[in-house]
Amino acid sequence: MKALKYIIAASLIFVSFKSNSQNVRFVTQGTIEYEKRVNAYALIKQQIKLWGDDSFSASAFESYQKNNPQFKGAKSKLVFSNQTTAFLPEEDAIAPSNNWFSNMIEFKQSNHILSNLTAGTSKTLKKIYDETYLVSDSIRKINWKITDEFRNIAGYNCRRANALVMDSIYVVAFYAEEIAVSGGPESFSGLPGMILGLALPHDHVTWFATSVTDVPVTEDQLKIPTKGKPVDNKQLYDILKKALKDWGKSANQTFKWAMM
Predict the structure, then answer these.
(1) Is the pTM higher than 0.70?
(2) Which residue from 141, 121, 125, 123 is spatially nearest to 133, judged by alpha carbons?
(3) What is the SS3 assignment for 214?
């Protein structure tokens, strides 16, 4: 008799679990609004050390602090439909001005990215200072390590994953399995769900979703500007290495952000 009770109880639990699983709706198309936040003071201090920490840089930084807040925000959006995504920046983190630090590449949102996640390919319109490139290549493969940490972002329960990209950039991502698209902001993807939170802790920048709109997406929305010099990643790498060869220690930082 006790055995029969256990069988009935187990059956009820299974039926309840199956019913709840069937009620989960997986999102496959829509629009995500992101906010990029930059710790401007920390980034500038980091750059000054590379420049040699001279008195001119220190004076310029002091002036910058008097007229600018420590944290700057910028908006972007990701439009997605099944396994195609379009990342579209809407503004720079720091508006153009006469201040010396405003032109730092770290403050820019220079990439418009169209990704075909099924084919593993992407097109990126990349503006680097006065030059614009259209980079066509494979999507960056990232060796993610998934953890048991969770965080609620824009109403979604997101799981944490960590990775190291370009040999030196430590990345923390939070992805939502309920959004069944393996995409994310900028050039970050490859998790079993959509990346709604992204942080580069050592580089003082984050991208976090502020809203997710679950609506149908048209083909016209999945487009990026295409007016730029056509290159692949290897060609862009060679161009930047040549252009930055006389930049000293700061070249590595600029190169890293330009190739991100």
Answers:
(1) yes
(2) 125
(3) coil
